[in-house]
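Q: Predict the bound structure with 5-phosphoarabinonic acid.
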Amino acid sequence: MKDGPYSFEIKKPNYIPSQYDNHITRHLSNMAGQYLDQDDFENQLAEGDNLLYEVYELKRPEVAGEILHGISIVHPGKVGQEYYMTKGHYHTVLATAEIYYTLQGQGYMVMETPEGDWSVESLSPGSVLYVPPRWAHRSVNIDPTQDLVMFFAYPGDAGHNYASIETQGFRKLVVEVDGSAAVVDNPRWAPPESR
Ligand code: PA5
Ligand code: NI
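A: Predicted complex:
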């Protein structure tokens, strides 16, 4: 972690930052219970523990005035009809936002609030996505041929809260139907008042 101002580069073809502190990798085994098609999940896992996504993070002090930033890369693939995606989370400090700038690929950001409001925004090169405070977020790669690469930035004290998403997933799933991406209801999801 640097003390003073710094700059670095994020360039084609692999978009790996020219400097970073953490390289986080998430494999299929880290996504247990997240995909609707449990049978395909188990079958694929028996064949090998595929790398689904990676994060290159520049570490900053975990205080409100800082801005954590880095690159996330979601690889192409599917479990059942559901595309490879991040686990997704609320921020531990719920009232913190996030910004994503898409560099490569095609995808969706699936979002929702604790009250059950939902939103799905598309991601393509050059698009800027603002995730407001209180919105959980998960990125999904819908292009079978290339990585979804995004730059992200969020407050240093935000933290990650995976627990409620791990329990029942997001309200909406992104699945392939007749060769294209479709947003459908998640049958495992229950409205907040019935949990
Ligand atoms: O903070 C963010 O939203 C991103 O940096 C994510 O952590 C990244 O996309 C990986 O997703 P997740 O933390 O849900 O596994
Ligand atoms: Ni986040």
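A: The mean pLDDT is 97.
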